[in-house]
Write a structure and sequence with these properties.
Layout lengths: L3 H10 L5 H14 L3 H7 L5 H8 L9 H4 L3 H12 L7 H8 L3 H13 L3 E6 L7 E5 L1 H13 L8 E2 H10 L9 H7 L7 H13 L3 E4 L6 H11 L3 E5 L1 E4 L2 E4 L22 E5 L2 E4 L11 E3 L4 E3 L2 H4 L4 E4 L9 H14 L1 E5 L5 E5 L3 E6 L3 H4 L2 H6 L2 E4 L5 H14 L6 H15 L7 H15 L8 H11 L3
Parallel strand pairs: 3-6, 4-15, 4-16, 7-11, 9-12, 12-15
Antiparallel strand pairs: 1-2, 5-8, 6-7, 10-11, 13-14
């Protein structure tokens, strides 16, 4: 967790505030609460823009081997494994592959040349970057030995310490969401003002959220919309290294890259600029998916879901439907939720700490009192009930679904639905039902080659398919 002392010391180090100003802000925080950054801005010691820029720090490109944090021998070995699959290659193509600056790659490739692992095969110009290299038998044999130890041939990793520092700078604890931006993220949904007015502060808090209520009323949809409401971009490393073991983090299936802007400063290419991630898991969640995934053949690791979700949103949907014991699952979160740090274990037995920095959302259809004990509920700052919609909200949802599917809304047919089915049969309104009804009408229309139309006959057909007799 980016504690007050750490944040303050970094602001002082960058000459953004003085030691005296920091002490005054900390004293105000002790008296009035709030985040340290908020108190510094309120006291006029730093502009909000400067504080936001501070938290958007771009990892600078390393200028030397020492600045990568990696031994030269590690870089040399990684390049040796890369180039064995390349045929002919140049310094720039290798640099692009390992995501390190050309001067550092040049230094490493000089070692490979001296050790007769690679040779120059030609050049287009006299500049060194145009040299075309090839592998020697010595280089291929060495690559085979290295690949037998570890088959990782991705971008160069960053150090665990650098990963932790960057995650702390990008912490969800410092997210600022304007009400207008938040409401826009939910504009495609019909959500009550009371729920929105609670979700907004919850998102800004960076604390755990517990969504509960009857099924089919939008808990999962609301949680996903919460992810779209999170502002800004963050940097995710391709991989980090700890204890000589490589752990991959960047995952194309969950991390959405953001192209650099024209005025963006140069960055360390070992990091990928992405939108704040949103990861959702449900009944398939197991304890194994929350631990490091070691590949015994490739001999490196894949980070668990909560690490991939750092600086973003982690949704545990259908809480209580997992195969594992619910108490075992909840106990797994007690320390990370309290300390905002998680402990992971390598297959060697070595344990290490990583930041646990995400807005975590638990969603369930089960009565919370039957699901979890009060001690755990106390650790969840926000507990929000997503209930059945009111008749007015149900109507708004129905109209939105019709508009989204190019189906003309008809007031008389809607009243028929409400009177003849919901009221007469005493059926509770659910937020998912308008979509289900319209989907049935669309399916039937497409089957017969007609444009979908809202009629009493089609409502009756959809209703019969919607419920079990």
């Amino acid at each position: 967790m980016l504690d007050h002392t750490l944040l303050g010391s970094r602001l002082v180090e960058k000459n953004l505030v003085t030691e005296e100003q920091l002490e005054m802000a900390l004293e105000r925080q002790r008296m009035s609460g709030g985040r340290l950054g908020y108190n510094l801005v309120t006291l006029g010691f730093i502009e909000e823009k400067d504080l936001v820029d501070f938290f958007r720090k771009t990892p600078p490109p390393p200028r030397t081997v020492e600045e990568t944090g990696l031994p030269l021998t590690f870089i040399v070995d990684l390049i040796n494994k890369h180039v064995v699959f390349m045929g002919e290659f140049t310094i720039p193509t290798v640099a692009d592959s390992v995501k390190l600056p050309i001067p550092i790659v040049d230094e490493a490739m000089e070692v490979l040349r001296r050790e007769q692992c690679i040779v120059v095969k030609g050049a287009d110009t006299l500049t060194k970057t145009s040299y075309k290299f090839g592998m020697t038998d010595t280089g291929r044999n060495r690559a085979a030995e290295l690949l037998n130890v570890c088959r990782y041939t991705g971008p160069a990793p960053v150090l665990l310490a650098e990963y932790s520092k960057q995650i702390e700078l990008q912490t969800v604890m410092n997210i600022v969401i304007k009400p207008e931006h938040f409401n826009k993220a939910f504009s495609h949904l019909v959500v009550s003002d009371s729920v929105l007015n609670t979700l907004g502060p919850a998102a800004c808090s960076g604390r755990a959220v517990f969504l509960y209520g009857p099924p089919g009323n939008g808990k999962s949809t609301i949680a996903e919309a919460l992810g779209r409401a999170l502002p800004g971009e963050v940097y995710v490393p391709h991989a980090f290294i700890v204890g000589g073991e490589i752990i991959t983090v960047y995952d194309k299936s969950v991390h959405l890259p953001v192209p650099p802007t024209a005025d963006a400063p140069p960055s360390d290419q070992r990091w990928v600029r992405v939108k704040r991630p949103t990861i959702m898991v449900g009944g398939e969640l197991t304890m194994r998916t929350l631990d490091l995934d070691f590949n015994p053949i490739a001999k490196f690791y894949e980070a668990p879901l909560q690490v991939k979700a750092n600086n973003g949103l982690f949704i545990i949907d259908d809480l209580g439907r997992q195969e594992m014991d619910i108490q075992t699952l909840l106990n797994r979160w007690i320390i990370p939720l309290a300390r905002r740090m998680d402990l992971l274990t390598l297959h060697t037995g070595r344990k290490f700490a990583v930041p646990f920095d995400q807005l975590i959302v638990f969603a369930t259809n089960i009565d919370p009192k039957q699901l979890v004990d009060m001690a755990f509920l106390r650790r969840l700052r926000y507990k929000i009930k997503i209930d059945h919609p009111s008749p007015l909200d149900y109507r708004r949802i129905f109209i939105k679904v019709c508009q989204a599917n190019n189906v003309q809304f008809k007031e008389d047919v809607f009243e028929f639905l409400m009177d003849q089915y919901y009221k007469r049969m005493d059926v509770r309104l659910s937020a998912c039902q308008p979509r289900d009804i319209i989907d049935h009408i669309i399916d039937e229309a497409y089957y017969h080659g007609r444009h979908p139309e809202l009629t009493e006959e089609k409502i009756a057909m959809a209703w019969d398919n919607l419920f079990v007799a």
